[in-house]
Amino acid sequence: MRGRRGDSGMTTSEYAMGTIAACAFAAVLYKIVTSGAVSGALESLIGKALDAQF
Q: DSSP 3-state assignment of 28?
């Protein structure tokens, strides 16, 4: 067990790669959600939800 370090956290390069991947995913998701078809579907869904009778 001499000289053995625990693998309990990410290194700086792993944090950088994780941050880049998260930003790329967020950019793709933003493009999808703001596209015309998805935006129209979301507006329709919200409109139907607001007009629902309880």
A: helix
The H or E element that residue 49 is part of is: helix 36-50
Read off the pLDDT of residues 12-23 as tens digits, 9 standing for 90 and up.
888 899 999 999
- Range scoring the smallest mean pLDDT among 7-11, 18-22, 23-27, 32-36: 7-11
Question: What is the model's pTM?
Answer: 0.56
What's the count of helices (H) and strands (E) in the chain, helices before strands? 2, 0
**Dihedral sign for Cα atoms in the order 43, 45, 47, 49:** negative
Token couple for 18: 């994780």
Angle at 31 between CA 22 and CA 34, to 5 degrees: 130
- Rounded CA gap, 5 and 35, in Å? 48
